[in-house]
Amino acid sequence: MLADPFMQRALLAALVLGPLCGLLGVFVTARRMSFFSDTISHAALAGIALGFWWGFQEPTIPMIVFSILVAAGIMWLKGNTELLADTIMALLLSGSVALGIIILSLLKGFRGELQRYLFGDILAISWLEVCLAIGLFTVVNVWVFRRLSPLTLLTAHEEIAHVCGVRVRALNYTFVLVLTLTVALSIRLLGIILVTSLLVIPPATARNISRNLRQQIIGSVLVGLVGGLMGTALSYPLDVPCGPTIVLICIGLFVSSLLVGRWRADKLSTCV
Fold this sequence. Notes:
Elements: H1 5-30, H2 34-53, H3 60-80, H4 85-106, H5 111-119, H6 127-146, H7 148-156, H8 158-163, H9 168-190, H10 197-209, H11 213-238, H12 242-271
Helix pairs in contact: 1-6, 1-9, 1-10, 1-11, 2-3, 2-4, 2-9, 3-4, 3-9, 6-9, 10-11, 10-12, 11-12
């Protein structure tokens, strides 16, 4: 299995994207941005459809560009209109999905591609996507750990961060850009429908057993790593879709963390 080039690419992508989603997921869940990532992942469908329409064999670049435009649209509408954030995201999500489905329905030879992107097909990932994932993993990790204190303060309380001299607007826009790129590249891993789960389940799992932010970050990264690698490795011999397999493994780890957290709480109460 490991001798197959497509499996090597798949495991390498899972090795970097799983922990990356786990790392960013800590801040995504704390800032209640899960719906934002869901909007970006669904909006990517229109970018994929436009890429095929324009003749791209691999629509990764059009998908990323369109996702960034949608993220920028969310931020602009949020700052220049009186619409609520969830209204803006629901508007752009539904519009992008509708556009993507219409374009794909007109492209007769690409209807099979729709299922691959909806549910994930990491076994078909290209070296371009692997290289982009590795580059993003490196850049994001360096950026997060260099800006960890301001990012943590911004996550805890935006107004206090502003008073303490944090460049709130620039940091917000950078975080949105990083999150958008991560979501777009992770679509091959989990698919449009399930990609948000890798940003939500690992930090939720880590939170059940962690006592501080450092433990939660480490735990979330490990859950993303284990879920990504195990799901990818098991999906091939079991002949099941990769994305749902990764999600179910992460769910299993979440349930285990609940039991461990409950046991720890009971033991602490008994000691007291």
